[in-house]
């Protein structure tokens, strides 16, 4: 008698708190994984940017050079550079190893909400409260941006980049996708001010969060509404959302101190993870593993799946 094959294990959600980092940089405005998920960046209201090994809880370097709070940051594909933007209206390119400012790009008329490198890390894209996205050439000495995208009618809250696309969310309630190969702009109207947008890992869908406490999954090419996810609270703040490492779950911060996980296909709430008593300001999901970082107040929490055992010597 042959035994039936065991069912493949379902995706595990990160719900075991492994570490809490006391970041000591005022309020943590954003937390971001680097490209391979081995390190993370924290953006502080005290004008600093910090680089950590989150699983070990070790601080590797502090980057100082912004004139006001840091609101977003990103790492380059080869881990050699960082970019950041903040309340001083500046976009900063950093050398990871030395901690030095390589370039400081000025031109935005208001605070910079969001920054991203393109895939080759030759261009930084920055979105600002001034309603523009600006593209800065990392290799040029020219002070002005190489391109300015000014279609948004209100502040740009979120910018994401694929190999040939720019996805932007704005307070004007629209998601805009710039197809750089085709030279075309696609726009979808959500209605409520958009706080975060992202591509699904397979590149077929876009996830959009907005201030009506709703996340929407859209077909990237047609704009068709594929799913809506509710239960969390997002009415005041710019909060992050994302998809889990295998596109199985939709994940969002919430103003009630939790992180919410929904089954992507079913739309049902799978987990409301209690983080603490405040607003979960930011989150980051590991690119390949069920590992989540959350930011609340001045600290960052690192979460793994229940079955995860920390390697000996790293705790």
Automatic annotation (TrEMBL):
WD repeats lie at residues 21-62, 63-104, 105-146. One of its GO terms (biological process) is mRNA splicing, via spliceosome. Gene3D superfamilies: YVTN repeat-like/Quinoprotein amine dehydrogenase. GO terms for cellular component: catalytic step 2 spliceosome; cytoplasm. It is found in: Cytoplasm. InterPro entries: WD40/YVTN_repeat-like_dom_sf (IPR015943), WD40_PAC1 (IPR020472), WD40_repeat_CS (IPR019775), WD40_repeat_dom_sf (IPR036322), WD40_rpt (IPR001680), WD_repeat_MORG1 (IPR051980). The keyword Cytoplasm applies. SMART domains: WD40 (SM00320). Keywords: Cytoplasm, Repeat, WD repeat. SUPFAM superfamilies: WD40 repeat-like. Belongs to the WD repeat MORG1 family. Interacts with EGLN3/PHD3. Interacts with ERK signaling proteins MAP2K1/MEK1, MAP2K2/MEK2, LAMTOR3, ARAF/Raf-1, MAPK1/ERK2 and MAPK3/ERK1. Identified in the spliceosome C complex. Interacts with PARD6B and CRB3. Interacts strongly with GTP-bound RRAGA but not with inactive GDP-bound. Interacts with p62/SQSTM1. This is WD repeat domain-containing protein 83. It comes from Rhinolophus ferrumequinum. The gene is WDR83.
